[in-house]
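The aim of this short unit is practical: by the end, you should be able to scan a pair of folded records and say something sensible about each. We start with the first protein, listed as its amino acid sequence and then its structure tokens.
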Amino acid sequence: MNRSTSASFSARAMGDDIQIDSLRGRELFSFLPSYYETSRVMRSDMDAKGSELDALYLAMDATVGQFFVRTATWGLERWEMELGIETDLGKPLDQRRAVVESKLRGAGTFSGQLVKNVAEAYDGGTVDVIFHPAEWGFTVKFIDTIGIPPNVEDLKAAIEEIKPAHMAVEYKLRYLTIAEVESMTLYENEHTTQDRYLGGGA
């Protein structure tokens, strides 16, 4: 091995000691002339700059996410303030998002579709709304959700806000049927919460 080959090998080995962990750092490095491939200084420089760019892009993505209710996190408080909703930081994010989304859906003339839109924003599943004109009321029937929805009190408050004062509302929950329970394995039965059985959530 001659001196130039040895020197090249040594330089490449030294350059390889510095790994570029940043995604955008590797992208920046790929635009440099090939003779920088063995440079520890340029590898380190691109990694540092790339890390800053990675953090910037993450921050930008997180900021854009706040403009959409279903992806908002720290921006939910702004949505709640705009809609006159009291902020409760003790609630899970998905429940707070459901309150905001329901409020946004709750504008317009009262109808079965309006109630359905609001209820499904909370529940995340299919909901049927059945009117009883003779009794001046209606029933909100949960189709997909088994047991008591975790934020049912928020849902009730939202429907009370949009429905006419003279109309009564009833909530019909879905529980596991005997056939469904009998088809469950012992493991599934042991790991099913009591509120999913009829009478278990009382």
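Turning to the second protein, read its sequence before its tokens, just as you did above.
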Amino acid sequence: MSVKRQIELTADGSHTLFVPELDEHYHSVNGAIQESKHVFIDTGLHHCQKNDVHVFEVGFGTGLNAFLTLLDSQKSGKTIHYTAIEAYPLSLSIINQLNYAQSHSLSDRMSYEKMHSIDWGLEAQIVPNYYLKKIEADFTQFDFTQINKIDLIYFDAFAPDKQADMWTQHLFDKLYGILNNDGILVTYCAKGIVRRMMQQAGFTTERLPGPPGKREMLRATKHL
């Protein structure tokens, strides 16, 4: 499937992609990096108490969440095993135009490039304490037996009104099943129907302040 994407600047100076077919951006136009840090790093990764963290991302996209997680792990010393699923990988020609790593050190820029150049389907060491496996697959048809137990889920699919099939009870049940006890799921979405599906799956949910331009987001935790 060929999907047209346009590179656009967001309010914090970082890039996002716009998909005309869906009338949807990959990130908040109020700030792509700002949103990702708030939702996935500050509210997700920093809330996880483990020093060896297994992350599963729904929607690898530009690799921004994976890159910010790598940068944070360099500060915290945590070991990260990061698995991401993506149905429509971006071309390197698009990736090379994105500015997420431009202001960082040469080693960080090389890490970002390596994240996008490694083979799909195989886990690779990006830096000594960060391992990445990218899976090219349709999340709605995914065989979850491929996934070992997870500590943290970044749910970063397009919005429910754009891709409703990504936000179903069946899939939240599956995500609950792959999480360890005290595992966390975070998403920018705060819709009541999404929160109720999470609760039906067994999650304890919290509405939390959202990133700039968004009033709320959701964090869900598995407590046995």
